[in-house]
Each structure stands twice: as C-alpha cells, then as structure tokens.
Amino acid sequence: MRRGNPRAHGTRNLRTTMEPFPLASVSPVVIDLDTLLARCRRGDPLAWEELVRRFQGRIYGFAVFYLRDREEARDAAQEIFVRLYKHLGEMRDGGTFVPWLLTMARNCCIDRLRALGARAPQDPIEIDPPSMAPSPEDAMLQHARRTLLYRALDTLSDVNREIVLLKDIHQLKIEEIGSLLRLPIGTIKSRSNRARTELAKAVRSMAGATP
Fold first, then answer.
1. I want to staple 33 with a disulfide (CB 3.0 to 4.6 A). Which of 94, 101, 107, 129 is the partner?
2. How deeply is 100 buried, as exposed, middle or buried, from its count of CB atoms within 10 A (0-12, 13-18, 19+)?
C-alpha cells in the first residue's frame, strides 16, 4: 500500500519529533510492536511518531556510543530514522525488529565515521539520554556510577565493547549479535564471558582508585 513521499510526509514528522526529542502527542495506550509496524506501513502518522518516540532514546544512546559526540549522534539518529522510514516495508516481524534496527544504526554510525575520516575519540562520554530528574544526591551518584562504567568500557577491545553493548545493554541474543558482527556464535560466547570478566576487574580497579 502506498505510504506517501518520505520527504514530504515522514521526514517532516520525524524532524518535529526528533528535535530535540520531545514526547510525541499520541495516546498513552501501549500498542504492541507488530501492530505498530503494520500501522506505520499503512502510513499512519501517529503510529510513526509513536515508533520514533519508543526507540529514539535507545538509538541516540547507541549512536553516542559509536560516535562519542552528541551533535554527531543527534544527526546520526535523525538519519537512522529516515532510513528506517524508507525501509519499513522490509520489516514485518516485530520479534526481529530491534536487531534489524540496531544493524541499520550500526551501519549508519560506521558510515559517518568513515565519512569523517576518523575513529571515535576515546574519551569516556555518557550515552544515556536525559530522563526524569532525580534528587541532586541521587543524580550525583548515578552520574558517578555511569562515568565509572563508561571509563571501564573504554578499556575493552572494540569487539568486546560492542558485545557488551549489544548483549548486556540492548539485550540481543547471542545468535543476533553473531549475525550483526559477522562472528561465529562460539566466538561471541567466549568473548562475552571474557569481556564481562575484564569489565568487572576494570570497574573494581577504578573504583578502588577513586578518591
């Protein structure tokens, strides 16, 4: 079924939704992902806004993890959702949507890094999108814990860091990670165990060195 011109319709809605990531004005009723995708394919603008709202923070954080620059990550998130809109017809199974979306996001981030002609900087940066403000004391504690975790993540190899991101943060299955990274399942399993051990040691070491 005809969805309309992405530039004339989907991109306009995307821009108003993504900048600067406000909540979309949709019904609070929770819609299952299969139904949401079907409605998006039929050209339902409210369903599209809900889909963006549901995944925007996750994709933004994913992009920051790779690009290590918030402005670049915002641009990348915008581009990822434009790509998603153009390829909605290819995705009909909500059960495989997240791995499919993250593969698209990873490819987009790698393309941007190549276009920039440089790897992401190694300085640790928080990748969590803004959330409801806790108390000042809780905010300081959460900030310290996140900073420690991201510093520890930066001690891992690129592949091991990606595996932690995909498995422990985004909850992908081993088989999905293997497909995304194009690595054997046995390699993913062994690297995952090694990465978690290395990450725990790094966190303990850094926590002990923190005054």
1. 94
2. middle
Give the span between the Cα atoms of 93 and 37, in whole angstroms: 8
Contact of 4 with 85, CB cutoff 8 Å: no
- Cβ 14 vs Cβ 52: under 8 Å: yes
For the ranges 3-12, 25-34, 103-112, 180-189, which has the lowest average pLDDT? 3-12
Element holding 198 (H helix, E strand): helix 185-209
Are 1 and 42 contacting, i.e. CB atoms less than 8 angstroms apart?
Answer: yes
User: pTM of the entire structure?
Assistant: 0.68
Instruction: Classify residue 23 as exposed, middle or buried by CB count within 10 Å of its CB (0-12, 13-18, 19+).
Output: exposed
In a domain, 127, yes or no: no
Confidence of residue 72 (pLDDT cuts 50, 70, 90): very high
What residues contact 35, with CB distance under 8 A and at least 6 apart? none
DSSP of 63-130: HHHHH--HHHHHHHHHHHHHHHHHTGGG---GGGHHHHHHHHHHHHHHHHHHHHTSPPP-S----PPP
Full residue range of the structural domain in which residue 161 is found: 132-211
How many domains are there within the chain?
Answer: 2
Q: Is 57 within the bounds of a domain? A: yes
Distance between CA atoms of residues 21 and 74, nearest Å: 9
